[in-house]
Amino acid sequence: xxxxxxxxxxxxxxxxxxxxxxxxxxxxxxxxxxxxxxxxxxxxxxxxxxxxxxxxxxxxxxxxxxxxxxxxxxxxxxxxxxxxxxxxxxxxxxxxxxxxxxxxxxxxxxxxxxxxxxxxxxxxxxxxxxxxxxxxxxxxxxxxxxxxxxxxxxxxxxxxxxxxxxxxxxxxxxxxxxxxxxxxxxxxxxxxxxxxxxxxxxxxxxxxxxxxxxxxxxxxxxxxxxxxxxxxxxxxxxxxxxxxxxxxxxxxxxxxxxxxxxxxxxxxxxxxxxxxxxxxxxxxxxxxxxxxxxxxxxxxxxxxxxxxxxxxxxxxxxxxxxxxxxxxxxxxxxxxxxxxxxxxxxxxxxxxxxxxxxxxxxxxxxxxxxxxxxxxxxxxxxxxxxxxxxxxxxxxxxx
Length: 399
Known about the structure:
4-stranded parallel sheet, 19% strand, globular, alpha/beta, single chain, Rossmann fold, 6-stranded mixed sheet
């Protein structure tokens, strides 16, 4: 399984004190000895990620973390890693035991709440020390989503899985396609996919594959072409396409070919709507016009791919922005999801990639510090659409 596919799955983070039973829980859920279990405090020394398939939840990534009360010499570093793992988490499980519910747990809940991460509480080791009314009352001041378990429960995995699923459904609702309400059964969708040096060998990139699948799931029809084949293809078609989706790098060329009465958007724009900060992108993108000589622009990438001379985020888009604005701008690249260890207020604009390998919550957590600091944000596709004068057209399908 590739890193790309794994990172795009639902991430379930497991948090709590040392020896609360986090590793035991992850082993129960995976049915494997995924994490080392020991009565010794601080056994889990770093974040452990394990791909799993949970019944009626589907493919996900379970994140086992170090205890937040680790007082060893490396405890501070381990706690920092645990707190960083929260930024990767779509759904959190806080494990408690021994009727212990104090400042460590309240701090985690405060972070979950501030980052709008839904969470549940698992009271572990019920057979050793049963949950008492005092602890239950303290927990209920924060949530009533608490489940008691014991490793001796024969149906422990099923109980926990059902509890997770129920609460995920409550918080996230039905998983709708970004194309819902835009296309319908038997509609024709044309996907325009350039093949250049940055295209992966022998396969398509994830945003293209995702859209092909979503079109098929809606019982509509896909036609996939390269930009140079688009005009001939449209001329040959007996019916008019409902929608054309293009790689953002071909926006200018494609927009000149596709008639105005056919919806046109980009893969990156669809990703922005599906799991990006779309409303913030709509407001932030026009700030490209406000850039001045010497301004700093941050390009955010979620994957850590091998750059090429035709790399969109590192080469092409910075060149486009410089040419469009006519300004001398400084561009910085940050790949992955790690926190920036610098003063972010130095940036005048943040340009986020489509985020095909990230989850919605990961993208939101990544962008929130910039949004809270009042820094305009946009994404690759929306920025390119704006530069090419088709920003309104590319977003029209959502309004």
